[in-house]
Amino acid sequence: MNVIKKLFAQLILPLGLIAMVASAGFAQDADYQKQLEEYEKKKKAIEEENKKKMAEMDKAQKDNAVKQFVNQGNTSLKKKQYQEALDYYDQALQYDPNFVKAYYGKGIALKNLRRYNEAIQVYQQAVTINPLYSDAHLAMAKLYRQLNQLDYALTACLSAVQTDTASADAAYELGVIYAKQKKYAKAVDAYQKVVELEPNNYRAFEALGVAYQNLGNSEGAISAYKSSIAIRERNDNVYYRLAALYNKLGSHQDALDNALESLKHKPRKNGKAAFEAGQAYEHMGQYQNAIKYYKMAAQQDRRWARSANYQIDLINRKLSK
């Protein structure tokens, strides 16, 4: 009996050890499973992060390629290599079909290649993608105006003005369109907006003067013309405009002064100013000087030859009596 108990005791010990080992094994299995789950979780997070970084790298590379092609297109535009510019912009759009600056440059290239309808379509694509892209609205307005499609030009230009209220270029173009439509009061408003934004814009003051003159506002016209000259003194065309207006108003000495000033800044191919000088001298009774400047007008510009020779003939008839 004692022998049996001893053998049994010897048997229980290994079984206890086995149970303890088995229990430890199960615990290890549970830890392993937990570690495996943590590993898979971390692995997935790392993979997602890598995918994100790869996507960011791809986007950065794509953006860089787009910008490079657009810059190359812009350089070609400056060199007037319009077909080459067009190719660069198309390559940019292959990388990013929504890059509006590529459409804008492409439109300019197409316009210079005289592919006007295609240029308008491209500008329309740009403003469809970004309705607030003022430059494309303005470019479209200018092209429509050059094609004498003034209603379309006005619509596009109003969009340009609304999307960029601080754009003097858009306001100036609006004035040009209104003037072509003979809506001179609205043209005045547009040009006044330009000179508010750019007080040194001598071209806007000149255009403002023309608009005032077409409205019959001579005082406003003279003031605007003088403002233009104050900014850019060597503006022969504005001196001519003043000379013609003063002659019309009967202020012939003022007309002569401005006509001679115009000829001073542009002594050749300035028949219109020479003609106004002749007009001023004639009205002041200085007929020999009038003939001199009428002859100058006829010699410098064929467009004034007929009128100038007619005035010379009238003076000679008057003097022969």
The shape, in one word, is elongated
Number of distinct beta strands = 0
> What's the tally of helices?
15
Distance N to C terminus:
174 Å
Mean pLDDT: 89
Largest sheet: none
Spatial extent as radius of gyration: 41 Å
The number of domains: 3
- CATH fold topology of the largest domain: Serine Threonine Protein Phosphatase 5, Tetratricopeptide repeat
Percent of residues in helices comes to: over 70%
- CATH top level of the largest domain is Mainly Alpha
CATH superfamily of the largest domain: Tetratricopeptide repeat domain
User: Unreliable stretches, pLDDT < 50, 5 or more residues?
Assistant: 7-13, 15-19
Topology pattern, helix = H, strand = E:
HHHHHHHHHHHHHHH
The CATH architecture designation of the largest domain is Alpha Horseshoe
Structural class: mainly alpha
**Beta-strand content estimate:** under 5%
Description:
Helices cover 85% and strands 0% of the residues. It has 15 helices and no strands. The protein has helices at residues 2-78, 82-95, 100-112, 116-129, 134-146, 150-163, 168-180, 184-197, 202-214, 218-231, 236-249, 252-265, 271-283, 287-300, 302-320. Helix 5 packs parallel to helix 7 (168-180) and helix 11 (236-249) runs parallel beside helix 13. The longest helix is centred in the N-terminal third of the chain and has 77 residues, at 2-78. It is elongated and about 130 Å long. It starts with a helix and ends with a helix.
